[in-house]
Amino acid sequence: MEGEGITRKTVLKAALLAAPLPLVVSQANALAGAPPALTPSCDDGDDPTPPQTEGPYFKPNSPRRSVLPGSGTALTVSGYVFGLACQPLANVLMDFWQADPQGAYDNLGYGLRGHQFTDAQGAFRLTTIVPGLYPGRTRHLHVKLQAPNRPVLTTQLYFPGEPRNNTDTIFDPALLMNVPQPGTATFDFVLNVPGTPPSSPPPSSPPPGGGTWRAGTTYPTGAQVVYGGQTYRCLQAHTAQAGWEPPNTPALWQRV
Ligand SMILES: [Fe+2]
Description:
- InterPro entries: CBM5/12, CBM_sf_5/12, Intradiol_dOase_C, Intradiol_dOase_core, Intradiol_RC_Dioxygenase.
- This protein is mainly β.
- About 10% of the residues lie in helices and about 25% in strands.
- The strands form 4 sheets. Strands 1, 4, 7, 8 and 9 form a 5-stranded mixed β-sheet that branches. Strands 3-2-5-6 form a 4-stranded antiparallel β-sheet, with no helix packed on it. Strands 11-12-14 form a 3-stranded antiparallel β-sheet, with no helix packed on it.
- The longest helix is centred in the N-terminal third of the chain and has 12 residues, at about 20-30.
- It is globular.
């Protein structure tokens, strides 16, 4: 469905972020020219979440906890885990690990390591601190996800506006978190799990409000969006795609 604008998943995600649903659907209809409910699958070009290298510092058997104690700049990461049909996935194992503010991993103990499970609505929340930088890498979090009886997805999450995003060869803009305000990040994962599209958005509390930039939206020159807490002006008319987030496309977006 890529190229046709809003897809079912986009609508569901938008509904999660910005109910009421009727408004979201009418906006989607206006953009797509067709009822999104007829879209049978969840494919808007960024599914599923891409894998990334595990790196050298993963340790099995992390403690079960969603709060990773540490001194540094507070960070919460929240969002949802979906299947290929946009269905929220409950009981997904999510194992996070990261560097401390000095860029060091705790390889002796389990500092800044912990696993949790998504709730019945497919939601997760990690409370931690902002990871530090270490040589050769931009700022990132590591995570492994596993839906029940499914393969493990190992990947990483990135922060918008990081200078090293441009030089880290592992960096993937599809894995940029939305950071509407410092210390608050959101990201929705899509796992390679087939299923049936939900009949309605899951009744869950929405994640913190993100910016206004949306993949699939056609932006005219001069349009302004908010992404990662920053305002950007469109330099060239285009239809936004995953990976073309404003911080990564200076030819398309100018920070104002
Ligand atoms: Fe790392």
